[in-house]
Specification:
Layout lengths: L2 E4 L15 E4 L4 E4 L5 H7 L9 E3 L5 H4 L2 H11 L5 E5 H16 L1 E3 L5 E3 L2 H4 L1 E5 L4 E3 L2 E7 L9 E7 L5 E6 L7 H4 L7 E5 L14 H4 L4 H4 L2 E4 L18 E2 L5 E3 L1
Parallel strand pairs: 3-4, 4-5, 5-8, 12-13, 13-14, 14-15
Antiparallel strand pairs: 1-2, 1-16, 2-3, 6-7, 9-10, 10-11, 11-12
This protein binds zinc ion.
Length: 256
C-alpha cells in the first residue's frame, strides 16, 4: 500500500497552485517526485515535516522541479543532520550539480569558520538509475524518457506497489502525446498524472496542450488527472465537462 499527495499542481510560474511535485508515502519511505522552490511551502500546507522526507526522485532540471533542493540540502545538513537519498537518472547527475546546485552548495565553512569545499555527496546519498525498476521499501519506481525541451534530458516515472501491482504514471513535463499509453503493456493500466498546457499553440512547444490530450482514447482519459496547469484554469474547466478527465487538486491524496 502507498499514497500519493499532490503537493502542488501548478505550472512553473503559478502563483496559486504551487509546483507540480508529489509526495509518495509507503510503509517506511517518504519520497518526493521532484522538489521545486515552492515545494517546502506546499509541504507545510499539508502539515508534512521536511525532516520526515527520506527520498527525492528528480525528473529533469527546471527550477519548479529542483529549485528547492538547496533548502533541503542545507536543512538536512545543519538542522536535522540526516542525509536525504536522491534518486535520479544517471544523465541528470552532472548537470544538476554543475549547472544548478553547486552555485549555492559548493562553498561552505567548517565549525571554526574555515572555508571548505563540498561535493554533491556531502549533502545527499545518491542513486543513479537507468530505465529499469528501482526497488524502494514496498514500492518500486521506473523512469521513462520523455520529450520536453529539445536536447534536455527529461523523464516521467512509474510508481508501482510491489505486492498488489497497482501503479501510477507521472508524465512529469512532457511535450507530446505519449503513444505508450495505448501500446506498451506497462502503460495500459494505472492512474496517469499528465502535464497539461491550457492554451493551445499547436503541438505545444514544451508542454502538452489540453486540446491534444482531449484526442486520447477514452481508455486513457478515464484514468487521467491533468496537472501543471496555469492560474487561469477556471476559465478552461468547461472544456473537460463532458469527458472523464479531471484536474488534480492541490493537497489531494490518492491511496493505492
Ligand atoms: Zn520542465
Amino acid at each position: 500500500m502507498f499514497s500519493v499527495t499532490f503537493v502542488g499542481t501548478g505550472a512553473a510560474f503559478s502563483k496559486k497552485y504551487g509546483h507540480t511535485n508529489f509526495l509518495i508515502e509507503s510503509n517506511q519511505a517518504k519520497l518526493m517526485i521532484d522538489f521545486g522552490y515552492l515545494t517546502p511551502i506546499g509541504l507545510e500546507k499539508i502539515n508534512f515535516d521536511l525532516q520526515q522526507l527520506t527520498h527525492v526522485f528528480i525528473s529533469h532540471i527546471h527550477a519548479d522541479h529542483v529549485g528547492g533542493l538547496e533548502e533541503l540540502a542545507f536543512s538536512a545538513m545543519f538542522s536535522y543532520h540526516k542525509k536525504p537519498h536522491l534518486i535520479l537518472p544517471g544523465k541528470l547527475k552532472e548537470p544538476l550539480w554543475n549547472n544548478s546546485l553547486s552555485g549555492g552548495l559548493e562553498l561552505s565553512s567548517d565549525e571554526s569558520g574555515q572555508p571548505i569545499t563540498c561535493c554533491f555527496e556531502d549533502y545527499f546519498d545518491i542513486s543513479e538509475i537507468d530505465e529499469n525498476w528501482f526497488e524502494l521499501d514496498n514500492i518500486k519506481i521506473k523512469p521513462f524518457q520523455v520529450d520536453h525541451v529539445p536536447g534536455k534530458e527529461s523523464y516521467g516515472v512509474i510508481v508501482r506497489d510491489q505486492e498488489t501491482g497497482k501503479q501510477i504514471i507521472f508524465t512529469c513535463d512532457v511535450k507530446n502525446k505519449l503513444s505508450q499509453f495505448t501500446t506498451d503493456a506497462e502503460f495500459l493500466d494505472g492512474i496517469i498524472v499528465h502535464d497539461c498546457q491550457l492554451l493551445n499553440d499547436g503541438q505545444g512547444r514544451v508542454h502538452t496542450p489540453l486540446d491534444v490530450i482531449l484526442t486520447y482514447p477514452e481508455s486513457v482519459l478515464e484514468r487521467t488527472y491533468l496537472i501543471h496547469y496555469g492560474d487561469q484554469v477556471d476559465e478552461h474547466r468547461h472544456k473537460i465537462e463532458n469527458t472523464s478527465l479531471k484536474f488534480a487538486k492541490q493537497g489531494e491524496k490518492i491511496i493505492f
